[in-house]
TrEMBL record:
The chain crosses the membrane at residues 20-36, 42-61, 82-100, 106-125. Keywords: Membrane, Transmembrane, Transmembrane helix. The keyword Transmembrane applies. This is Uncharacterized protein.
Length: 154
């Protein structure tokens, strides 16, 4: 199967799973807004956010399995798995850790802010390098960046 056929399969998968993604993204966004605006216990709201994002990990695992099935190279499958784990880590950082840091006013000091920003930059840099490795391992395998581009095209 060539790269265009694989991308077409991924595009069809993205359309099918769009509703599932929205079922997790919209409540998470509402919870983050409520978490930042309410005066309730921050740990209880963080637990709700963490449980919702933990349930969303099922979507990340399903998508990773689907994309891994497109290649026969074992090393490429490992790289794809790492990429989806990093995606999930980034979601945890943005949906749980960042709002918690804002709510507890931890971001006002320099060290936690620098750690958070450098951690996010490190994840994005690692994604870029893993995409390069993946394109070297299996030329016909779509990279994570190409898959994300097809996510929003009809």
């Amino acid at each position: 199967m060539n790269k265009q056929e694989r991308l077409h399969k991924v595009k069809r998968m993205n359309v099918q799973w769009m509703l599932l993604r929205l079922m997790f993204a919209l409540p998470t966004g509402v919870l983050i807004y409520y978490f930042l605006q309410s005066q309730g216990s921050p740990m209880i709201m963080a637990a709700f956010l963490l449980s919702l994002t933990s349930a969303a990990s099922i979507l990340f695992m399903r998508e990773a399995r689907f994309v891994k099935a497109l290649t026969t190279h074992d090393q490429a499958k490992k790289v794809i798995g790492i990429q989806y784990q990093l995606d999930y880590l980034f979601v945890i950082m943005m949906a749980v850790i960042f709002p918690l840091m804002m709510r507890l006013n931890i971001l006002t000091s320099l060290i936690p802010f620098v750690l958070f920003v450098s951690g996010s930059a490190f994840i994005l840099f690692t994604h870029h390098k893993l995409d390069q490795q993946l394109s070297w391992m299996d030329i016909e395998q779509p990279t994570r960046r190409e898959i994300q581009r097809t996510r929003f095209t009809w």
